Amino acid sequence: MAVSAFNSSHEAVAARYEAVDEVYRETRDMRLLGFVLFLVSDVVLFSAFIFAYLYLRNSVPNWPPITNTGKQLPRFDVAFAAINSCVLFGSGATMHFAMESWKHLNRSAFNLWMIATIVLGIAFLCGQGYEYQHVAITWSGSTMGATFFTLTGMHGFHVFVGVIYLIVLFLQANNGVYTGSKYFGLTAGTLYWHFVDVIWVALFYLFYLM
Amino acid sequence: MAATLEKSIAFIFAIIVGGTTTFQLVKDWSSRGLDNQVTKLLLGLMAFGCILVILAAVGVLGGG
């Protein structure tokens, strides 16, 4: 019974998704492909920096490296980063719930989950700012610092843009820009937010666990 | 002491978020379309991230 209700709900969402005019459907599919390709290009951008980091990391005998003044640099704080990671991954889950709520025409739940996502995104940025203030390295002091601040800063900028993007989507959704069958902007926003989550998985492993 | 508390919090959060993500992934497994396929891939990687957090919290990864 529950499975049947789930399937019919799933089918209702799929039916609404297809219940658009031909022109909209074609442009939606093209925009979706374009957006996915944009995300792939962003993967290439991060990959370039990540491989540069791995190259620099493998070019020294020990990591964390020893500075020219003979000072042994410390490892990053795994415990705090783990909490901050959970905040970001949690925002990915709430974003998914927001999208599902929109697809199932539950606007109040959509608003709630969107606000939760935005708050968690801001919380992650605050956590990153706190870490920047307390970390024992600087951008210019070592290759470790340079790669850390460049990659996490670039990711943080993506999160910052994502938060702005989500706020715009939230306002648009509440001003009737999207409907139950036409919501490409929300789909793109969800994909973008999941993308920044997944990039953080790689950065969390590379800087804190490896 | 503070690190232990932080790791405990991270462990609990990671289980909640990872469990939720995995549940959503299983629930949406039959959905079709490029956006849903990409979403499923990204949700799977997010669940993997939660596993990394759990392993870090229990000291298996990240130097204890």
Condensed summary:
The complex is a heterodimer of chains A (210) and B (64). With 210 residues, chain A is mostly helical.
SSE blueprint and pairings:
The complex is a heterodimer of chains A (210) and B (64).
Chain A: H1 2-18, H2 22-58, H3 78-103, H4 107-134, H5 143-174, H6 184-209
Helix pairs in contact in A: 2-5, 2-6, 3-4, 3-6, 4-5, 5-6
Chain B: H1 2-27, H2 34-57
Helix pairs in contact in B: 1-2
- The number of strands of chain A is 0
Please count the helical segments of chain B: 2
CATH class category label of chain A: Mainly Alpha
Q: What is the N-to-C succession of helices and strands of chain A? A: HHHHHH
Structural class of chain B: mainly alpha
In the CATH hierarchy, the architecture of chain A is Up-down Bundle
Q: Would you report the number of β strands of chain B?
A: 0
Low-confidence stretches of chain A: 1-6
Count of separate DSSP helical elements of chain A: 6
Proportion of helical residues of chain B: over 70%
Largest sheet of chain B: none
Terminal Cα span of chain B? 13 Å
**CATH fold label of chain A:** Four Helix Bundle (Hemerythrin (Met), subunit A)
Characteristic terms for this protein:
heterodimer; A: 210 residues; 0% strand; disordered N terminus; B: mainly alpha; 2 helices
Characterization of this structure:
The complex is a heterodimer of chains A (210) and B (64). Chain A is an all-alpha fold. Chain A has a single domain (2-209), classed as Cytochrome c oxidase, subunit III, four-helix bundle (Four Helix Bundle (Hemerythrin (Met), subunit A), Up-down Bundle). In chain A, 79% of the residues lie in helices and 0% in strands. Chain A is built from six helices and no strands. Chain A has helices at residues 2-18, 22-58, 78-103, 107-134, 143-174, 184-209. The radius of gyration of chain A is 21 Å and the shape is elongated. Chain B has 64 residues and is mostly helical. Chain B has one domain. In chain B, helix 1 runs antiparallel to helix 2 (34-57). The longest helix of chain B has 26 residues, at 2-27. Chain B is elongated and about 50 Å long. The mean pLDDT of chain B is 89. The chains are: A mainly alpha (210), B mainly alpha (64).
